[in-house]
TrEMBL record:
UniProt subcellular location: Cell membrane
Organism: Mesorhizobium helmanticense
Protein name as annotated: Amino acid transporter
KW Transmembrane helix (keyword) present: yes
GO molecular function term, any single one: amino acid transmembrane transporter activity
Keywords of the record: Cell membrane, Membrane, Transmembrane, Transmembrane helix
Residue stretches spanning the membrane: 6-28, 40-64, 70-94, 115-137, 149-170, 191-209
Length: 211
């Protein structure tokens, strides 16, 4: 491995995931709607996204994208519009009354796949991840050792860090749902929908060069 210890990468990964962003908002939302156990499907989508991005860093594609302002802005715009799409869905769902958790989710194969895909798309179009991995990973790579194995180890550490942090946020969401069960639960969805709209607005302004 590189000159920096792996525990440093684990700490940086957990700190980066802990900063509120689209992944965190969806973890809280999924925890409030489906419970912590089923919110794990969404976390699997985030982990899959990290694996894809880490592979791209290892192959050199991520650095090329980050170096191009045009393509990075394109990623921001795609991420922004996808967040808007999700936010509209969340806000529309908030109009309908619901129970504390949607316990029918495990019985709907298409729903679990949709949850994984939704979180994957949000994570993979998050410009923060495109900037984070190319900037951090090379410091932990020793070019005198097998590169693929080192990236695999870093990917596992990133996956564990993601799940650990997102599990805490999902638990927070489920606790909030417990406190605001019944008709009051709609305010959780509305808050998350508005937050997603805010995050999408920031991405659009960044892509247009206003931030």
């Amino acid at each position: 491995m590189g000159n920096l210890p792996l525990v440093t990468f684990a700490f940086i990964s957990m700190l980066g995931m802990a900063v509120p962003g689209p992944d965190v908002v969806l973890a809280i939302t999924n925890g409030s709607r489906y419970g912590v156990r089923h919110a794990f499907f969404g976390m699997a989508g985030v982990v899959l996204s990290d694996l894809v991005l880490i592979c791209m860093v290892g192959l050199g594609f991520a650095a090329l994208l980050v170096a191009s302002e045009f393509y990075l802005s394109a990623v921001r715009m795609v991420g922004a519009f996808y967040l808007i799409f999700i936010a509209v869905g969340v806000l529309r769902a908030s109009e309908a009354p619901r129970h504390r958790f949607d316990l029918s989710l495990p019985d709907k194969g298409h729903s679990t796949k949709a949850l994984i895909l939704r979180c994957f798309m949000v994570a993979v179009t998050n410009p923060g991840a495109w900037l984070f991995f190319p900037a951090i990973l090379p410091s932990f790579i020793d070019t005198n050792e097998p590169i693929a194995i080192q990236y695999a180890v870093l990917a596992i550490i990133a996956a564990v860090a993601d799940v650990s942090v997102l599990m805490l946020y999902a638990t927070l969401g489920s606790r909030a749902a417990a406190l605001l069960a019944g008709p009051n639960a709609m305010w959780i969805d509305r808050l998350y929908g508005i937050t997603l709209l805010g995050l999408s607005s920031v991405l659009i302004l960044q892509s247009l060069g206003h931030l």
